[in-house]
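Protocol step 4 of 6.
Sequence for phosphoribosylglycinamide formyltransferase 1 (Photorhabdus australis subsp. thailandensis) entered exactly as in the expression construct, tag removed. Do not edit the line below.
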Amino acid sequence: MSNRIALLSSTGGSVVKTLLRNNPDINLDLIITDRKCPAENISDEFSIPNVRIDEKSNIKFSEKLLEILISNDIDYVVVFFSRLLQGNILNNYNNKLINFHPALLPDFPGMNGFERAIRNQKKFIGSTVHFIDEGMDTGKKIIELRYHRKNECKDRLRHIVFSQQVASLNEVLKNLKNNRALNTLGPENKNKKDNTNLDLLSKESLLIYNKLIQSS
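Step 5 output, structure tokens:
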């Protein structure tokens, strides 16, 4: 039996929606939000159950989230979410909460990471997939994709990072649905000059990335 996977989102859900439209073999088992947001529309378009948790306190939200995950037999959670998870969920779902961050870490953690990376004028921009721990974007990295900036405008760079995230999500979901372990990045993938890390992607995920890059 394949892993059951939930999406936790407080955003527009455009990364997830784009992947589901481009790869019909990918599916999710539950969508969880903390507010009315466009991510809930994915539930209608793809017939995925949706639960909204109206709770302002992070710890109480995390407690209710844990209850929902357990009651729905969820094995892993992919996270596009702006709040910190706290309490027992971090132990119960250790190495099973997977965050998708639109910037390179540890340089640009937290909110507005992409915008801060653009202003910083560093040579590389990129995106990071990592396990969630008790810190702010401090968990072990699973995928880090980088792009060597040239003279692209901000919108083009945003589309590149968006495409990275769609491809990374495909890679993660494909592995989880096939019951394959998610390996964390080793020393060979860190601090490599001029390394985009696209070799971390399977052929299928790389095809999705290239298709999206060429579409804009």
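Step 6, annotate. The chain is about 35% helix and 20% strand.
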